[in-house]
Structure formats: C-alpha cells, structure tokens
Amino acid sequence: TKIMLGTFSPQQQPYTYMMAEEVTPSGIFARGTYSARSKVKLLVN
Fold first, then answer.
1. What is the DSSP string of 14-33?
2. Of the candidates 2, 1, 5, which has an alpha carbon nearest to the alpha carbon of residue 40?
3. What is the pTM (predicted TM-score) of this model?
4. Which residues contact 3 (CB under 8 A, 6 or more apart)?
5. How far is it, in rounded angstroms, from Cα 34 to Cα 17?
6. pLDDT tens digits, 13-43
7. Buried b / exposed e across 22-32, counting CB within 10 Å, b at 16+?
C-alpha cells in the first residue's frame, strides 16, 4: 500500500499520522518477501 502524506508547514507540535493496521497473509500464502520503507526529512535552520 502506498500513501502520499503531502507537505506540511513548520509548527511547534509534531505532525502525527495514524495508519490503518494491515494484515499479512499466513500459512502457504506467507511465502515471499515483505518490506516497508519510510523516509523522514528534517530541515533545521
């Protein structure tokens, strides 16, 4: 699943985003590779 969060302007409180839990297959269907990738860019002046 790919989700685009968009752009956010600076603020004092951190942004939080709660995503729905996903269920991965089990048993014979669990074979394969599962991966997750996230990127956080922090801009500090």
1. PP--PPPP-PPP-GGGG-S-
2. 5
3. 0.31
4. 19
5. 22
6. 887 777 777 766 677 666 777 677 777 777 7
7. eeeeeeeeeee
